[in-house]
Amino acid sequence: MTNATFTPSAATSADPQLTPIADHAEQLRLAEAGVAALAATRNDRWYPKFHIASNGGWINDPNGLCRYDGRWHVFYQLHPYGTQWGPMHWGHVSSPDMLHWRREPIAFAPSLEQERHGVFSGSAVIGDDGRPWIYYTGHRWANGKDNTGGDWQVQMLARPDDDDMTTFTKQGMIIDCPTDEIDHHFRDPKVWKTGDTWYMTFGVSSKEHRGQMWLYTSDDMTHWSFERVLFEHPDPDVFMLECPDFFPIRDAAGDEKWVIGFSAMGAKPSGFMNRNVNNAGYMIGAWRPGEAFEPETEFRLWDEGHNFYAPQSFHADGRQIMVGWMSPFVAPIPMEEDGWCGNLTLPREITMDADGDLVTAPVAEMRGLRAGTIGLGPLDLGVNECATVVEDDGGAVEIEMSIDLARTDAERAGLHVHMTGDGHYTAVVYDAQIGGVIIDRQNVANGDRGYRVAPLSEGELASGTLDLRVFVDRGCVEVYVNGGKHAMSSYSFPSEGPRAIGLVSESGAAHLNDLTMHTLASIGLD
Fold first, then answer.
1. Number of helices and strands in the chain (H, E)
2. CA-CA-CA-CA torsion for 327, 330, 331, 335, nearest 10 degrees?
3. Which residues sit opposite 293 in a β-bridge?
């Protein structure tokens, strides 16, 4: 494992540096007006009913996830003046129960010199004083105007002014960028406490263009000192590790493992791996304070769908909870035309199973969204049969189904969702030839196409049963396989008109042990 051979004297400020360039309250007012203008023209044809999205404008990474004073808080990267990526702000929603969400005022806008061109991603932590501390990256273009000269990025601190976290005071820059030791990228702080020490890691592209995570320590949460390179990605093609995560987890024997997560930029596709433009995943391993992280597994994807990136997790109520961004990686991106662009995934709880593998399943609270349930019981599908089970999904459905693999000889068996009268649909099926679950958009009505595969293990195939839990929103689908051993998130933009759901068997018959449909309520943001 590579360790730094330098002590970046410029990387730690003696005191936070605060250099205003604009009135923050006025910048927030303008941003709220920008979102409102886009929301006034918003087309809701694909706008989610139960996924978090901005009322208008572009969003990306989830930020600042935390639970404080009885409420769950989700912040997110926001461009309030357009539906494509632009100068980043922080949007904000909160909830008492992770089911009913309300919009909060925009939290941050660029107003300091160190964040002139964007308030980039970061995390929240409940500090030694029992109140939230918000860490984020301040972004400037090195040439003062665009990305042709690279990035100039530093770590920043802010504190809430009230327990509702509706206004914040920026404390300024706490870690400067050692520009001679990096290749521009220096961002996305994740903070935690082990023992009596606070730790911060963030993603770095080294001067040798290697993706790394650096580690800093602090006794007071304000003054930070460089300790070491926590991790360097072994693939030389990976030049940056965005949105890093790092947390402990217990295995079945009660022993502590550490999970290192990151969104790797530069990895090349190989088989079913790394098919997206950039790919978010993790390794499981060991870490002790004062040492580098030692991986014990290969890199694994958090999510095997088309549109998952930049997840962030946090620990609350004894659970490790993760939210990701459904990234519209590839054009065409039709929701850009609708006054909004992008949504987050469902909150997922991360656990470790008896095999030592991570499982990500929707948090238990999601069952509280069920507004109605229909049990369709065991079902048989004949050869090449397609049976409509929902004439119009209403834009919000959860499907639980169990496929009897031993009694199924179809080459493909599963669901067609977002079926419209013009013959378009998205397939969510088990493919026996591949031995995996597939989201196939070859017949989708709008947007990018292609398919993604979650390959099943030998043990899963040998079990004889495949369990799927499928969430269908107006413009996206999330699939959880075998209780969360696999997760898949993909956009699916249907045509106009009623959107049906059908059961399908191709080139053979299929048997379902069980099929249950749940209509879902809105989370209150649509």
1. 2, 36
2. -20
3. none
Active site residue 61: yes
Distance CA 132, CA 147 (A): 33
Q: What digits encode the pLDDT tens for the residues 389-425?
A: 999 988 899 999 999 999 999 999 999 999 999 999 9
Task: Report pLDDT digits (tens) over 439-462.
Answer: 999 999 999 999 999 999 999 999
Domains present along the chain, CATH in parentheses:
24-362 (2.115.10.20), 372-520 (2.60.120.560)
Return the ∠ at Cα 82 (arms to 76 and 87), rounded to 5°: 60
Take residue 74 and report the two structure tokens written for it: 């989700």
CB distance 88 to 139 below 8 Å: yes
Q: What phi, psi does 202 have (nearest 5°)?
A: -155, 170
What predicted TM-score, i.e. pTM, was given to this entire model? 0.96
Q: Determine which one of 23, 44, 61, 380 is catalytic.
A: 61
Q: Report the greatest alpha carbon distance in the chain.
A: 72
Distance CA 184, CA 197 (A): 28
Are 252 and 230 spatial neighbours (Cβ–Cβ below 8 Å)? no
Residues 123-139 have pLDDT tens digits of 999 999 999 999 999 99
Cα 61 to Cα 208, 363, 411, distances in angstroms: 26, 19, 37
CA distances from 336 to 59, 209, 383 (A): 11, 33, 40
CB-based contact 482:359 (threshold 8 Å): no
Q: Residues in the chain, how many? A: 526
List phi, psi (to 5°) of 9: -60, -25
Q: Which tokens go with 36? A: 């409102």
- The label of the residue with tokens 């929301």 reads 39
Answer yes or no: are the C-beta atoms of 2 and 229 closer than 8 Å: yes
Section 235-264 average pLDDT: 96
* pLDDT value of position 16: 80
Name beta bridge partners: 412: 431, 506
Contact 34, 28 (CB under 8 A): no
Predicted local confidence at residue 8, as pLDDT? 53
**Rounded Cα gap, residues 91 and 108, in angstroms:** 8
Tell the residue number behind the tokens 């409102």, with chain if given: 36
Round to whole Å and give the CA distance between 425 and 79.
Answer: 31
Residue 244's nearest CA partner among 183, 306, 201, 301 is 201
Please state, in angstroms and rounded to a whole number, the distance separating the CA atoms of residues 56 and 312. 22
CA dist., res. 381 & res. 386, Å (int): 8
Considering only CA atoms, which of 252, 221, 2 is closest in space to residue 133?
Answer: 221
Shortest CA distance to 482 belongs to which of 490, 492, 494, 470? 470
**Contact (CB, 8 A) for 24 and 111:** yes
